[in-house]
Amino acid sequence: MHALAKRFFAHHPALSLAALGAAQNATELNLCPAGVPVEFLPAEEHNSLSRQYLELNQLAFGKLGLPNWVLSDLYLQPGAIGLLRCPARMLSEPSRQRLSLPDEERVIAAAYYAAPTVHRGHFIGVSLLSFLPGVQAGAWVKALTLKMLGARRMRGIAQWNNLSLRVHTRLGPMRLVGHVPGVHDYVERSFLYEMDLTDEAREVAAMERRLLFQPTRRVSATDSPALGSLLRRAEAGETLYLIPPGLDGGDILVHEGPLPAGDGGA
Ligand SMILES: CC(C)(COP(=O)(O)OP(=O)(O)OC[C@H]1O[C@@H](n2cnc3c(N)ncnc32)[C@H](O)[C@@H]1OP(=O)(O)O)[C@@H](O)C(=O)NCCC(=O)NCCS
Fold first, then answer.
1. Which residues are paired to 252 by β-bridges?
2. pLDDT tens, 48-77?
3. Range of the domain at 118
């Protein structure tokens, strides 16, 4: 991953990686994930950056935007948000307008937050956002943040019809776990997935889109009965994957059964 990350930042020299979290968390983080230096920014000293993150999160997620207290209590206190930053002039228009900062000011281009769980080394993906389309900012900030956190496994909740599936699958195949517990706002189109993050070769191949398996089924991202049935099968113990690139022409790409060994034909 080191070589790939080096190439990414060489292609995009205006981008840099940072982390925003409570000062005491810095020592627990890998501040050079895949060889990329992370500037750790203690939340106690960076109130305006916290406000900027809130603004962008609320812009990205609309009615599911982050409440202020959740940022303080459940993001900054237990962990750290991974940030890709760039000069404000590079941001997409809605975010530029929302922040209204000078062109050369260093701002958040993309961000990822994963929360620690009671299982050591396991994280739950909470928020991914990017206002720098077209350079895989979302995939990179997610991959590097998870490395910074030392995550060996992650679970996440995603929506079948969200283009972010193309971002998540840049980290590898997504094993379907089942329906989303609780009363999630988008419960009818959401699912729970899990990813193993310990196979570096696979991760590199996925990031380069060389990790391509043959789907055994394609299911329309709007076919709720068929998607619900997949989740019930996963809950019953069947091994089912959403495979890269995840979403293709409105279809979800599914592999039923264990994946072939090796790098998927890379
Ligand atoms: C989802 C999000 C993070 C992606 O941002 P990003 O990483 O900058 O996205 P990219 O420009 O790299 O595009 C991601 C993928 O979608 C594809 N894509 C983008 N726009 C597309 C379109 N209109 N039609 C088809 N595919 C499209 C890209 O080609 C890319 O796929 P690839 O990696 O296979 O080439 C960003 O759109 C966002 O912040 N959305 C709002 C918040 C959200 O929904 N977060 C996810 C919650 S789980």
1. 219, 247
2. 999 999 999 999 999 989 999 999 999 999
3. 1-151
Q: Which of 130, 180, 191 to mutate to test the pocket of ligand 1 (most atoms within 8 A of CB)?
A: 130
158 lines ligand 1 (CB under 6 A): yes
Residue whose CA is at the smallest distance from ligand 1 atom 48: 158
**Phi and psi at residue 152, to the nearest 5°:** -100, -20
Q: Are residues 69 and 146 in the same domain?
A: yes
Among 123, 151, 179, the domain boundary falls at 151
The total of other beta-carbon atoms located within 10 Å of residue 187's CB is 13
Give the per-residue pLDDT at 262: 60
Average pLDDT, the chain: 95
Q: Is the CB of 132 under 6 A from ligand 1?
A: yes
Atom of ligand 1 nearest to the CA of 168: 48
> Same structural domain for residues 92 and 189?
no
Of the three residues 126, 151, 176, the one that is the final residue of a domain is 151
Is it the case that residue 266 has pLDDT exceeding 60? Answer: no
Name the DSSP class of 29: S
Identify residue 84 by its one-letter amino acid code. L
- Give me the mean pLDDT over the 236-261 stretch: 96
The answer, yes or no, to whether residue 263 has pLDDT greater than 80, is: no
Measured in angstroms, how far is the CA atom of residue 177 from the centroid of ligand 1? 23
Q: Which amino acid is at 60?
A: A
Atom of ligand 1 nearest to the CA of 125: 48
